[in-house]
Fold this sequence. Notes:
The chain has nine helices and nine strands.
Amino acid sequence: MKTVLTIAGSDxxxxxxxxxxxxxxxxxxxxxxxxxxxxxxxxxTGVYGIYDVSPEFLKNQLDCIFTDIFPNAVKIGMVSNSxxxxxxxxxxxxxxxxxxxxxxxxxxxxxxxxxxxxAQETLVTQLMPLASVITPNIPEAxxxxxxxxxxxxxxxxxxxxxxxxIGTDTAVLVKGGHERNTANDCLYTxxxxxxxxxxxxxxxxxxxxxxxLSSAIACNLAMGHTMQESVENAKRYITGALQAxxxxxxxxxxxxxxxxxEIQGEKQD
Length: 269
């Protein structure tokens, strides 16, 4: 069985973070492991508290995983301070996993900054160069490239600018989910630009979509798919999870991560 490690915060309501990642990994029939960067008190209506673990304890978790069940792929989600980011970067350099997906959680859907400026600098200079791919949404891509993104051409330019800024072979997937009429994503790699068309799903329950997509990409990379195949498969998975129409909570609810298992079962039958 292929293995995937998620390094992220815990969402006690189960819709995002570690919980969404592990559900996605299980839905792909892979073995999931987790290193928790922070505990959050949150639900579908908002985030009401964050409690970071110490860098030393995060390092302890990571060493336990890498020295026993080495992951075929690593997904990194929200990391709120420079100390934790540096620990993750140092650990990746130490153990050198082959496939790393980084979801740079910096800006909320409402536009609120979720990371301090010094932590953002550490994320860009220390962690992004070690990733196989990063998956910023449009507000995050605007922060990273320093320009507004208003159309497809802007998405392409931003993806290339971020790729050049990182300065390694880290691929950049700019997610178009914040566009009003489409859900097309733009992937920039050393081979060039690739577009992935997506159908906008009329569903207000989108809690954890970024976590889920990046985890699905990590799953596909762990299974040996190419970067382009992994993005395409992950987009198909998250579209189905939205179309399933799960409706839980009083706010923006979670996705139906397990619908994939039903589809896979039908294929086997």
